[in-house]
Amino acid sequence: MPRPKKGQEHPREGMGDRIGMLSAIGTPVDHIARICNMSTATLHKHYQDDLDLGASKAGAVVGGKIFEAAKRGEQWACTLWAARRLGWKETNVQQQTGADGGPVAHKIEADDTTVKLLEELARLKARSSKQG
Fold it and tell me: Where are the domains of the chain?
């Protein structure tokens, strides 16, 4: 869109909607200013509401479409609405058991040196607990 002539008033017709849409989709403010061929100062001065409310307006439109679909009974919309607005969620529980439903058996294999060290540690611990 061409730059307005010097002294032309802002806001320009239709520019607010364009700025709001660009803001809604996450376009950075400095990019919006470049796309619209204006300075960021002018953008903020004349289109601040469009920058601030663009995402909210877009969310209202999309949310309204989802709500209408849910009212029609469309399953995807009902599921999305329940999950996001009502906090509903599916949960999966996994339980692991050993043989015949008992605890999972753990077996640690160690070489002779490690076994001797562990036995010595156990003996020292037993001796220190008798002294203490």
Answer: 15-85
